[in-house]
Amino acid sequence: MATPTVNVVRYTALFTGVFYGIWHRRTLQKVHDEEKVHHAKHERQDLVVRAKEAWKKQQEASKGGVVTDPEDPRFDLEKLIASWEAQA
Fold first, then answer.
1. CB 68 within 8 Å of CB 82
2. DSSP code of 33?
3. So which domain of life are we looking at (predicted)?
């Protein structure tokens, strides 16, 4: 049989651990939520940058009619060489 002092210490430790666990979980969740918002913000910024680059490439392609980017599926080497010869 445990003395009343031992029981007080046991339950104090139990409740302290429970409250610490709740507090720790909240801080972890708060950090996770902040990182999630930060990631979403940078993801949107990255999408905007890629969209601007794609729009820029599209505008350049529509101006001269010659695609100079070899990664573009519409790239035609013969047209590119012909445009260089016309400029020279």
1. no
2. H
3. Eukaryota
